[in-house]
Amino acid sequence: MAIHKILFASLLICLLIQSSHAATKERLFSDLEKSALEVTATPSRVGEGVGVDKLSITWKVSSTATKEPEFKAIKVKLCYAPASQVDRPWRKTENELFKDKSCPHKISSWSYDPAMKAGQSFDYTLERDIPTGTYFVRAYAVDTKDHEVAFGQSTNEDKTTNLFSVQAISGRHKSLDIASVCFSVFSVVALLVFFVNEKRKAKIEQSE
Amino acid sequence: MAPNHSNENGSIGSSLHGVTAREQIFSFSVEDGPSSQAIRSDDPTAKFALPVDSEHRAKVFKPLSFAKPHMRAFHLGWISFFTCFISTFAAAPLVPVIRDNLDLTKTDIGNAGVASVSGAIFSRLAMGAVCDLLGARYGTAFSLMLSAPAVFSMSFVADAGSYLAVRFMIGFCLATFVSCQYWTSVMFTGKIIGLVNGCAGGWGDMGGGVTQLLMPMVFHVIKLTGATPFTAWRFAFFIPGFLQIIMGILVLTLGQDLPDGNLSTLQKSGQVSKDKFSKVFWFAVKNYRTWILFVLYGFSMGVELTINNVISGYFYDRFNLTLHTAGIVAASFGMANFFARPFGGYASDVAARLFGMRGRLWTLWILQTVGALFCIWLGRASSLPIAILAMMLFSVGTQAACGALFGVAPFVSRRSLGLISGLTGAGGNFGSGVTQLLFFSSSRFSTAEGLSLMGVMAVVCTIPVAFIHFPQWGSMFLRPSQHEERSKEEHYYGGEWTEEEKSLGLHEGSIKFAENSRSERGRKAVLADIPTPETGSPAHV
Questions:
Q1: Which of B46, B249, B347, B434 has the fewest CB atoms within 10 Å, i.e. is most exposed?
Q2: Which residues of B touch A166 (CB under 8 A)?
Q3: Which domain holds residue A100?
């Protein structure tokens, strides 16, 4: 039957796509040159309340870096510390770089030329959609193909030192709360009004 | 002899008549036949837009019409049910944002998912009584307008505990399934109630798919106005909340409980001999088939409800889609309900025509097992196109199984029909709670592994359908009983009444039902009923 042929053909096509995808993505984190960059991150708070926390970040190329000629750009990212990854598989650390989800928040990126060996220092204001958790900062050095070749991070290899914590904004607003209460009350009251009204009408009709 | 009034409004079990969509509903009992016809024959039925029977139930189903009161009730009913599905699963596509805002763990998210379907286990059972007492309009409106505050209170949620509590309270509104089916049952006559209820059920279930599209879109639009993500998702919940209030008001103003008017203004006529709830309950609970159906529905509708909660997050996390795209993919799962559930019911009917009840059971087993096998495949698929293909095939199989199950349920009992339908429906929610608790609430399994394991469990839990045996019709592997008495439908349905009740004639409705259910013997039996001519084949050709 025609429908069976179509299903079978689409199945074959899907399998082919799948197998062709498999070959290309095997760059591993463990292959990257460790500590090629020295990164520090110091949190500070400006003013009162949330949403205005700042990170002072510096990165520079370490003297022990060997792949330095390949560097074309430096990408700085905010990464989750192990404490914030517990029971949260969507933040899991994976060795395969394309699967790794532990550094989803981009801080900034810099195009690199050898004159920049001494590094950069800048301030980063935390975005308002950064969740609550413990973090560290990692800088990746990428080559011309946009593949990571080396990295450095503000914590040690076990990710236990120099971690800082972020408190997210709650997202709640007084106006939202008030609107919510108003509509809820309206809903219940409207129902009661209808109910009482109809009961009254029925009583009147019955007594007629 | 006392007339059988078990079809009258208010009698136990009548609230769920027609829920199962394949039962015969009789507009008047045997004894009262002529007299009730005399009373009603001079009623001005010309005032109805659709042709009606003697109880003023519509005989025709016109989905494109909004005529008062029948089609209007249908549309108000299924759209209310649809709206409640939207609210109950509104959080699911937004979980990637919510989990960051509230710092949720996988356990928190899983538990909230369980909570979202658990409330309805109880509210569905209670809704039957509410509809009997207050009418379908108020049943629906109560469900919509009393759970709307829960939807709005998402703006207050600050941690995992409050998130779980709010999702639990929103979940109560899934009781609209019962009120929707009750409403269509009183508005449409028995011959077409199958199609009407199948459409109402399937189109309502689509809400679980639409919400996966709607919520990310609303979220996106609100973000465009400048709100931060953590505020935008809270505000997005106002949309399902508004929809519920609007539908509640529409139901109360435009709807009508019964073809002839509203419950409170109509006068109830005559004496109603209500069936004893304790008896109805006992016969439902005593029948082992009820519990097999409870488990089965838990792994067809239950799996569907679970998928509504987890599939969007699954595609977002595993295949790195945007919130929007993950929503579109997830939506197509729920949208398949539009044709898949009616198809399942239709397939069951066709199988019954050919092979009788045995055909229905095999159809149910095949559809549910095939659906579950595709669920296993979905969990194992590592590329997006294959995952989508697996998901689509899985959705059709499982949703068709839901439809096919309600092709079997009406025949399990006549006396306790309403309660069995309610219990089966509750089984769906129960199954969803169990699967979410086991496979999606801890980091023990990845979501992909959870999907495959759920599929395996569904395959295993579909096997009990082989144990459903009707003495008069057989089962999947056994032939019908050859015993003189037990092979009769009357014996099976009559067995639900005591001798005393039979002497009062209370079982007449069941006997009539038994006669009509002879169609479940399949083609061979129907042919066998035709008496062979005395002469047989002619002596000379």
A1: B46
A2: none
A3: 29-167
